[in-house]
């Protein structure tokens, strides 16, 4: 295979960037990610080759937690605030390249422009929903359980170490 620039194509070292299903034998199953992480940490502490281990979230759910009610005032206020931050950033950059004089002019112009554009974009975005989404929320991907998989060459040793963890015995 050749690249469009005339030389041989190079592949990046490490895992593939394409989604691939996990491989390995199940060595443990946990109700929370924290428990699965603790299990893998236990394996690492026992000098286990953790490159053979994968944590897999099973029964995935998208959880959207409602934070509050969204009104015109909140939408415009949020747009003004985010526009102000962006405008301040642009104003600071412009002030670096201003020759002589006060450097506060570009900062104030950037800040004011950012607020105006932030309000306009927020109003247009909120108005486009026509009241179908009058709330704010945060989304999170959560699994019903977390399985720890291990490559077959070390799966039995991983099961033994995790059984000791479950019984409360830690390796010395």
TrEMBL record:
Domain General stress protein 17M-like positions: 27-104
Disordered: annotated span: 1-23
Transmembrane segments: 75-97, 103-126
Keywords, ordered alphabetically: Membrane, Transmembrane, Transmembrane helix
One Pfam family per UniProt: YflT
UniProt signal peptide: none
Protein name: General stress protein
Source organism of this protein record: Pseudonocardia aurantiaca
């Amino acid at each position: 295979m050749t690249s469009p620039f005339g030389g041989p194509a190079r592949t990046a070292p490490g895992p593939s960037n394409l989604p691939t299903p996990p491989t390995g034998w199940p060595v443990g199953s946990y109700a929370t990610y924290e428990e699965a992480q603790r299990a893998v940490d236990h394996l690492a502490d026992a000098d286990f080759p953790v490159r053979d281990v994968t944590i897999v979230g099973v029964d995935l759910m998208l959880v959207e937690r409602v934070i509050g009610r969204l009104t015109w005032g909140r939408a415009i206020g949020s747009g003004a605030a985010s526009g102000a931050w962006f405008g301040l950033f642009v104003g600071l950059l412009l002030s670096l390249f201003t020759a002589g004089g006060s450097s506060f002019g570009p900062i104030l112009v950037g800040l004011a422009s950012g607020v105006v554009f932030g309000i306009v974009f927020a109003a247009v975005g909120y108005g486009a929903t026509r009241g179908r989404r009058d709330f704010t929320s945060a989304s999170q991907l959560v699994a019903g359980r977390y399985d720890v998989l291990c490559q077959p060459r070390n799966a039995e040793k991983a099961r033994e170490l995790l059984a000791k963890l479950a019984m409360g015995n830690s390796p010395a």
